[in-house]
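Hey, can you fold this one?
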Amino acid sequence: MACITVGFLFRWWKVSPKYNSKTITAFYNNPKDYRDKSIELAHLSNLGEILASSIMSAINTVVLIGGFVVLFSVVISILENSGILLLLSSLLSPLFNLLGVPVTYSESFITGLIELTNGVNLISLIPAKVISVNIILCSFLIGFGGISVLLQVLSITSKNKISIKPYIYGKLLQSFFAALYTFLILEHSIFFTLDL
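Sure. Predicted structure:
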């Protein structure tokens, strides 16, 4: 639901002059004129070369993602051992108090903002009287994706000179809508409001 909402809101996002309505219409009317030369060469290559190239590309992407996860896990460990993570969580605690969220979540939440997997894991392990707090915070983090994911996307899009700004704005909006929709759904659900 959050993705669909952001999609509707970004319907009016500014379109690059390179891809205006005339260009898109011309492409659909005569796609051969706009076909990438690499695609034409791919049709001339044999199937084995295409599959090998696809597999190598997939392996490189998997290694890249794994590298980012390991790197940011190390960064989180450094921040935790140096006390910076605790300092950042104390800065975030007034906001949590305002929202009625226990301060015990702040450190795990900041970890999730840096690296999604570690943060969601830590939040899910926090014992809570009302489990809906855990679910809403995890929903927010999954919607955002973490700085690690943003940098992964940047590493791929930078090769094609695609602006990362719309993606960042979209992920911020998606995280807020994901948390909001989760909150609204859980508010109308009896099961999640019971004390555990």
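The radius of gyration is 22 Å. Let me know if you want another pass with a different chain boundary.
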